């Protein structure tokens, strides 16, 4: 399985749609503590998934270790995930990673298994 990580900053955004058309699923990572940018993340997410009505979507609400992080329910609301529709498989995980990557939380392992399954189903 091949993963392509495309940065979220402005200069990289033009690549999103280009590569998405060749992808088996979309993994969209947001910073749960960056409250100010969630509306922008929501806008881009909905624009992206609007190009393919059935592409499976996995959202990582990352940085859950930070005190200021929005809980999952708030991320769900902020990204308007209830508007994603019933034709698409959609999953939302609260995630966090350690700085040196030494610990892989169980939720990441579950997410990995799910992603592998979704990719296999899409092939
Ligand atoms: N506390 C905490 N910090 C994190 C977590 N994940 C990433 N970081 C830190 O956030 C900073 C930015 O991480 P990047 O992954 O480079 O940022 P990014 O937003 O993905 O950058 P682009 O790929 O350019 O969009 C780094 O200092 C990471 O160590 C997390 O779960 N918790």
Automatic annotation (TrEMBL):
Q: Where does GTP bind?
A: 8, 62-65
- What are the protein's GO molecular function terms? GTP binding; GTPase activity
Q: Does the keyword Nucleotide-binding apply?
A: yes
- Key word GTP-binding present: yes
Q: Which UniProt keywords apply?
A: GTP-binding, Nucleotide-binding
Name the InterPro entries on file.
Arf-like_GTPase (IPR053254), P-loop_NTPase (IPR027417), Small_GTPase_ARF/SAR (IPR006689)
Which regions span the lipid bilayer? none
Q: Which PANTHER family match?
A: ADP-RIBOSYLATION FACTOR-LIKE PROTEIN 9 (PTHR46724:SF2), ADP-RIBOSYLATION FACTOR-LIKE PROTEIN 9-RELATED (PTHR46724)
Q: What is this protein called?
A: ADP ribosylation factor like GTPase 9
Q: From which source organism is this entry?
A: Sus scrofa (Pig)
Q: Name the gene behind this protein.
A: ARL9
């Amino acid at each position: 399985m091949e993963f392509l990580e495309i940065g979220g900053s402005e200069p990289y955004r033009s690549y999103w749609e280009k590569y998405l058309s060749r992808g088996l699923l979309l993994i969209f990572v947001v910073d749960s503590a960056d409250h100010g940018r969630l509306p922008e993340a929501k806008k881009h997410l909905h624009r992206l998934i609007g190009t393919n009505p059935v592409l499976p979507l996995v959202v990582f609400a990352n940085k859950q270790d930070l005190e200021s992080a929005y809980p999952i329910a708030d991320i769900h609301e902020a990204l308007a995930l209830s508007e994603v529709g019933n034709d698409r498989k959609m999953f939302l995980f609260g995630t966090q990673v350690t700085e040196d990557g030494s610990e892989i939380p169980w939720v990441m392992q579950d997410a990995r298994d799910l992603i592998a399954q979704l990719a296999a189903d899409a092939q």
